[in-house]
Amino acid sequence: MSEKDVGLKLPSAWRYKRYYLFIFLTVVASVLPWIQVNEGHFFLLNFDKLELHLAFVKFDMQELYLLPFLLMIIFLGVFGMTVMGGRVFCGWICPQTIFRVIYRDLIETKILKLRKRIKNKQLEPDMSIFQNKVKKGVAVLIWVVLSFVASANLLWFFVPPEDFFSYLMDPFEHIILFGTLMALALFLIYDIIFLKEDYCIYVCPYSRIQSVLYDESTVMALYDTNRGGHIYDEHKVKQFTKQKDIQVNEPHAECTACESCVTVCPTHIDIRKGLQLECINCLECVDACTVVMGKLGKPSLVNWSSEYEIIDKKGKTKYFRPKIIAYSILLVGLVIAIILMGSNKEHMLLNINKENRLYSVEKTSDGRVAVDNAYEFLLQNTQGEKMEFYFKIIAPNNLKGKIEIVKPTEPFGVTPGVKKKKIVVLRTYDKLSGDARHDTIIPITIHAYAIGHEDKITVFRESTFTYPRADIIKESK
What we know:
The chain has 477 residues and is an alpha+beta fold. 40% of the residues lie in helices and 19% in strands.
């Protein structure tokens, strides 16, 4: 419809803006799993290799302390988005909505012409016509294929594409992956073709949460009762179905009772009834009313605004209010925290455990007394290539004696992604303590590093060296 036809310049339809966003999100979600930087993915929670990739940096499962922060950012972001813009996530970002638009608006309506008009989502195709049955079958087949593609795309964030397809070639060895792919695809087929928007209304818990988060300045699709008139009474019972009936009770009411805002709604509600949990803020009703009222040279009766501005007429919507500021501060704090914690990532993993025996004491052939402490080192090379590792002992500055490494005596190789167990023995020939009643616990620091990469691949771990009491040393001489 041209601007000349409607009598005034209309704003661009929200529907097309949603389509552009849907295309962008789909492209990003499809391409992102394939992009690697230094063998790292933007996001990958790989249970197969026990890795978390975040912003192209690989973290071992022992570093999953970052994951709770990431989940908090997601939940706080969605809740903050709801306080600001209602169920805008549902209408503009949610995969359920995107998939329904692809199936209903693109496949059924635009490609196959099974539905006559995108603007009427209440009228289902006449399935008594053979041609429509054929088109429906084709639409289902197309969506079956897309369901498997979408399911695989989701799994790529848990099993990288470079492994995913090779695993599928041997489904009996990877039955969990194959079964998950089938289950996800079957769910999407049932959800999009049969369950439809009933998922948003009855299954999704988000609609129940949103009512707690709303306030008078929350932006949502709202019918202006001050201009349009009260179609429903205070008990949400419909009073009028024709424009003349509305104007009998409210002479200045502008609603034409065309119900374009009703027929276009994907969740089958009447926006004129007021705030409803089923509304997903897709703004289809805003577009519909904009066109109808535009023909009369008037602005839309349904707007994306707040009760504070449209219904209560208290002034402009307050976007920067205490709730929004609080969510913003929390989100910024969490982002800073995850960046700082991620920047301190260790490029090798090392756990040190002492053996159950505290020490061993023996007299050497040259007459000295040797005190040994044994440890179990568990190392993991988180780099992409095999490297040689070794370590050194850092003793307290006030220690009168020396602790040396007797096993292993040479650097040892560690294969990437493999945990290597190494028995380490530390020894001293010096008298480190003269305590006659108790063993002496001496704090030490283990400095482990990769040969040739000491400036980057290096870790420090605190441990202890136990030196026996004086009578045990005396007996060994």
